[in-house]
Write a structure and sequence with these properties.
Layout: E1 6-12, E2 25-30, E3 36-43, H1 48-59, E4 68-73, E5 82-87, E6 92-93, H2 94-102, H3 113-132, E7 134-137, E8 142-145, E9 153-154, E10 163-165, E11 177-179, E12 186-187, E13 208-209, H4 214-223, H5 228-231, E14 233-234, H6 237-253, H7 271-279, H8 286-295, H9 306-323
Antiparallel strand pairs: 1-2, 2-3, 3-5, 4-5, 6-10, 7-8, 9-12, 10-11, 13-14
Helix pairs in contact: 3-6, 3-9, 6-8, 7-8
């Protein structure tokens, strides 16, 4: 790959940055300042990126998103039809971190509570931005609206393998946590921001279930079994809050909250809710366990929004910091 503004260094294996798993990802150095990014190749024979490239760069520009830094035409490849998308450099994802912990020989999954708070806080900031257009202004610690005409965005892919980390800087305990993989993302319209039919495979084990009455469950199975996939999984802002809760639950417990077949139906009862919070080891604080419990509520109306979570997470994290000996440094 030859890029006029960038120098190709080497190919790496980092999935989920918007490219298919088979697509090469390269470490690429910007010639002007020597900063290293990730680059993926993309075909654009119709000039779509010329029309919407700047909008995409503005949209994907948040501290807790894998940001789209640049779109570069490679004039020496395929007659100028080969484009390169230049992204934030991330060094690992949460899936790899969890697999390393699980294979470390420890009897229990020992993920520090500080890392759970770090992921929850950072990815919730990304969701709040995508859902509402609000960013945190670090100078005053307040939320600011980026665009008064903002149309909500649903990421569609929230799992350990789509949550990334940069290298820690200075005294930081962890690198910046970033949400990536936007290949199924959609810009929504309407107040509900709900998409009728999620894409196949969306969310994997971390997709949000929909409460279904026993009578409706029987009707769907008997009369329209092909509707099971559509009728039992939600894709909305509340569903993405559920998915984030499922990821943090996995960090604490060692597996996603619902180990079941994709076509199973979750009745509208509260048995699973009690199992969720009882299954979380008591070495984690009540503040964190309660937040995750509420994020995993079977009723999407009972779950907190990303905006509400911002305040709750701030209060819970502050309370936990005051009573823990665990080191957690984030220099903003």
């Amino acid at each position: 790959m030859s890029l006029s503004k960038y120098e190709h260094l080497e190919e790496v294996r980092i999935e989920g940055l918007g490219a298919p798993p088979s697509e090469a990802v390269s470490l690429t150095r910007r010639r002007s300042d020597g900063k290293v990014f990730l680059a993926t190749g993309v075909e654009d024979g119709i000039g779509l990126l010329d029309r919407v490239g700047e909008q995409l760069k503005r949209l994907l520009s948040h501290p807790n998103l894998v940001c789209l830094i640049d779109i570069v035409r490679d004039s020496e490849a395929l007659g100028g039809c080969k484009d390169s998308l230049v992204w934030d450099r991330c060094d690992t994802n949460l899936g790899k971190v969890l697999s390393q912990v699980q294979t470390s020989g420890e009897e229990e999954l020992a993920v520090p509570e500080s890392l759970c708070w770090h992921v929850l806080s950072g990815i919730n900031q990304a969701l709040q931005y995508l859902h509402t257009g609000q960013k945190r202004a670090y100078l005053w610690g307040q939320q600011m609206v980026v665009d008064d005409d903002w149309q909500g965005v649903l990421c569609a892919s929230i799992s350990p393998t789509t949550i990334y980390f940069t290298s820690p800087k200075g005294r930081d305990t962890y690198g910046t946590v970033k949400l990536g993989c936007f290949k199924d993302a959609v810009v929504t319209s309407g107040a509900s921001m709900q998409v009728r039919h999620p894409p196949l495979g969306h969310g994997g084990e971390y997709k949000a279930p929909v409460a279904v009455s026993p009578l409706m469950q029987e009707r769907i199975i008997v009369n329209k079994p092909q509707e099971i996939r559509k009728r039992t999984h939600d894709w909305s802002p509340a569903a993405e809050v559920w998915s984030l809760g499922a990821v943090v639950y996995h960090m604490m417990v060692g597996h996603p909250p619902l180990e079941r077949d994709m076509t199973s139906i979750i009745p509208c009862d509260n048995k699973s809710l009690h199992y969720y919070i009882d299954a979380i080891p008591n070495r984690y604080s009540n503040e964190l366990r309660t937040l995750v419990y509420e994020m995993l509520h079977i009723s999407r109306k009972r779950r907190p929004t990303a905006q509400e979570l911002t305040t709750r997470i701030g209060a819970g994290l502050s309370f936990w910091r005051d009573k823990t000996d665990e080191e957690y440094i984030v220099e903003e």
